[in-house]
Amino acid sequence: MRPSQKFNLHPSTHSAKDLETKTFDVICIGSGWAGRQLAAQVCKAGFTALVVEKELFGGDCPFWACVPSKVLLRSQDALDAANAVGGAKERILDAKVDANGVFARRDVITANKDDTQLLVPMTEATGATLVRGQAKLADVKNVQIAPFEGEPVEVEARLAVAICSGSEAVIPDGVKAADPWTPRDATSADYVPEKLIIMGAGAVGCEMATAYAGFGSKVTLISSSGSLLPSIDSEAGTIVRKSLEERGVVVKLATKVTKATRTDYGVEAVLSTGEKLSASELLVASGRKATLDFGLEKLGLSSHGTHIPVNESLCVKTFDGNDWLYAVGDVNGKAPFTHSASRIAGNAIIAKARGQTPSNITLTLGDRKAIPQVTFTSPIVASVGLTRKAAATKGIQVRQITAPAKTIGGILHSDTIADGWAQWLVDEEERLVGATIVGTDAADLIHASTVAIVGGMKLEQMVHAVPCFPTMSEVYLGLLEAAGY
Ligand SMILES: Cc1cc2nc3c(=O)[nH]c(=O)nc-3n(C[C@H](O)[C@H](O)[C@H](O)COP(=O)(O)OP(=O)(O)OC[C@H]3O[C@@H](n4cnc5c(N)ncnc54)[C@H](O)[C@@H]3O)c2cc1C
Ligand SMILES: NC(=O)c1ccc[n+]([C@@H]2O[C@H](COP(=O)([O-])OP(=O)(O)OC[C@H]3O[C@@H](n4cnc5c(N)ncnc54)[C@H](O)[C@@H]3O)[C@@H](O)[C@H]2O)c1
User: Fold this and answer.
1) Which distant-in-sequence residues (6+ apart) come within 8 Å of 218 by Cβ?
2) pLDDT of the residue at 307
3) What's the rounded mean pLDDT across residues 374-395?
4) What is the Cα–Cα distance from 427 to 391, expressed in whole angstroms?
5) Ligand 1: which of 165, 181, 334 to mutate, most ligand atoms within 8 Å of CB?
6) Phi-psi region of 287 (alpha: psi -120 to 50; beta: other; left: phi over 0)
7) Axis crossing angle, helix 99-109 with helix 66-83, rounded to the nearest 10
8) Which residues contact 391 (CB under 8 A, 6 or more apart)?
9) Most buried of the four, 26, 136, 170, 230, by CB within 10 Å?
10) Whole-structure pTM over 0.95, yes or no?
11) Distance (Å, rounded) from C-alpha 410 to C-alpha 376?
12) Binding of FAD: at which residues (predicted)?
């Protein structure tokens, strides 16, 4: 069995047959960040919530996605940081990470995929009731739970049912015969493949290329897109490509993996160029689709493609008069990040139950005006609001301001700090509408831009926000200067 599939479902605990009541204010199908946060929010407001989970309480993020992937990246990062400072680097005996040590640290942080260690008690502490089993929509506000043992049980929601079922990796038919690694396998692995082909250069592909190159794999990163991280403006992908190539990664863009098979050695991949490559493993990181195995069709609904369409309150759009069925998190395809499973649906459900209008936080978050994203490559790529591409698609006229993401603070911090790249996009009134930062500390630096975009700030106001010396926040001085302020 693959390491990604080794976990205990604890089938005899949290059984639907033991429920003291069958009626809850809100029922969440799925216990990822989306389901748990919504349940916690409504419980805090004095309502009751049931969370149904078919796999591990906690969903993807703590066991297979954000958390283990960040652990796989952290050790090389720490070594690189020490290696970039004279006086410290002389003490480093080996600049390569110990992959087994990294895997062991990951297993501790992910509690060996045992949800009873942290996620179950943490979620119960919010006041939510938890049940293990597969949930299906049975009727309006009715959900059927098929437990791991015993007969199905029906539960009813007084206010709302929220589909928080997440997403799963898309494995194209042409490569299935290779029995490829999914992102779950890449984050759960307990060995380092000698040669690794990664298909897809989005966030998963680029992060895993960084991690496995650090472990010593010979990585080939192949993507149908013309640049790495295609959802961000292309300068970011160019910088990440250069860094990956310096780490020995071979990058092939505008190229598809069309077919792959298992061989005695591992896998053979056929590319759209006709080239054939062999490797120990193939990681497919070519996108995700919503998890839709909960019986939408039972209500005469279809999911309209790969995600469930929702309105600005995250209420499902697919049928008239719906005011009780919500889709929250990856399943709605709006912004597939842990942090974007925001309080939108909870606000709407609570306000409606109290006969109030939802606060305008719903709208700010709902239109994705300022949802940030960080890709933990080396250097890190952070972005919020509009990219140039997104502005053009929306027909929004923007002025581009760029500056190096390199400051005196950064130079004092690291002898090898690279120039990096920072971009602000401002609208015709000089209001900030987008920011991208590629470089040291970008993950945290971006938050200042998020706040400015949410606050509708103009450059003439931002000029008053003076960063401390000597810090990386001086990137913002560089941007203001480049903007002519
Ligand atoms: C490798 C990787 C790294 C990532 N890194 C980051 C990162 O650094 N930062 C970030 O913000 N995002 C990251 N993401 C994205 C992030 O993991 C997702 O956006 C987030 O986990 C989605 O949360 P969710 O609650 O919508 O879904 P999930 O976490 O997928 O939870 C859905 C849950 O619903 C359950 N479920 C589904 N159907 C049913 C049913 N019928 N009955 C009962 N239960 C059901 C599933 O078992 C699952 O537990 C990463 C993704 C990947 C793949
Ligand atoms: N740090 C983070 O926040 C983080 C990290 C990892 C994942 N995620 C989330 O997970 C989601 C999924 O990430 P992902 O990287 O799997 O998908 P993605 O959609 O971001 O990127 C898919 C990539 O695969 C390429 N591709 C598609 N078909 C191909 C083929 N046949 N051959 C070669 N290349 C092909 C595409 O051109 C693209 O570059 C993202 O939307 C992201 O939100 C976030």
Assistant:
1) 194, 195, 196, 248, 250
2) 87
3) 95
4) 10
5) 165
6) left
7) 140
8) 397, 398, 425, 433, 434
9) 26
10) yes
11) 18
12) 70, 330
- What is the reported pLDDT for 366? 47
Question: In the prediction, which pLDDT does 149 show?
Answer: 87
Which of 223, 174, 178, 180 is closest to 203 using CA atoms?
Answer: 223
Mutate to test the pocket of ligand 2, among 66, 181, 223 (most ligand atoms within 8 A of CB): 223
Per residue in 3-12, pLDDT (tens digit) is 999 999 999 9
Q: Indicate whether residue 257 lines ligand 2 (CB < 6 A).
A: yes
- Residue 360 confidence class, pLDDT cut points 50, 70, 90: low
63-101 residue pLDDT tens: 999 999 999 999 999 999 999 999 999 999 888 899 999
Sheet with 250-252, edge to edge strand ranges: 250-252, 218-222, 195-199, 281-284
> Are the C-beta atoms of residues 474 and 409 closer than 8 Å to each other?
yes
Question: Residue range 204-231: average pLDDT?
Answer: 98
Neighbours of 466 (CB within 10 A): 11
- In this prediction, the answer to ipTM > 0.90 reads yes
Going from the C-alpha of 34 to that of each of 109, 296, 415, the distances in angstroms are 21, 19, 41
Q: What does the pLDDT average to over 130-155?
A: 95
Task: State the Cα–Cα distance between residues 272 and 256, nearest whole angstrom.
Answer: 5
Structure tokens at 144: 């059927």
- Please give the domain boundaries of the chain with CATH numbers for all domains: 3-58+115-168+289-367 (3.50.50.60), 169-286 (3.50.50.60), 379-482 (3.30.390.30)
Q: Which residues pair with 148 in a beta bridge?
A: none
pLDDT of 368 over the 80 cut: no
What CA–CA distance (Å, rounded) separates 254 from 222? 8
First to last CA, the chain: 60
Listing DSSP states for 22-59 in one string gives SEEEEEEE--SHHHHHHHHHHHHTT--EEEEESS-TT-
Cis ω before 193 (30° cut-off from 0): no
Ligand 1 — pocket residues by CB below 6 A? 29-35, 52-55, 59-61, 65-66, 69-70, 134-135, 164-167, 183, 187, 204, 291, 293-294, 329-330, 336-339, 341
- The Å distance, Cα 410 to ligand 1 centre, comes to 35
**210 in contact with ligand 2, CB cutoff 6 A:** no
* Side chain identity at residue 475, one-letter code: V
* CB-neighbour burial class of residue 416 (10 A; exposed 0-12, middle 13-18, buried 19+): exposed
Cβ of 39: how many Cβ atoms within 10 Å?
29
Which of 109-118, 314-323, 362-371, 471-480 is predicted with the least confidence, judged by mean pLDDT?
362-371
Convert the pLDDT of each residue in 415-433 to its tens digit. Answer: 999 999 999 999 999 999 9
- pLDDT bin (cut points 50, 70, 90) of residue 320 is low
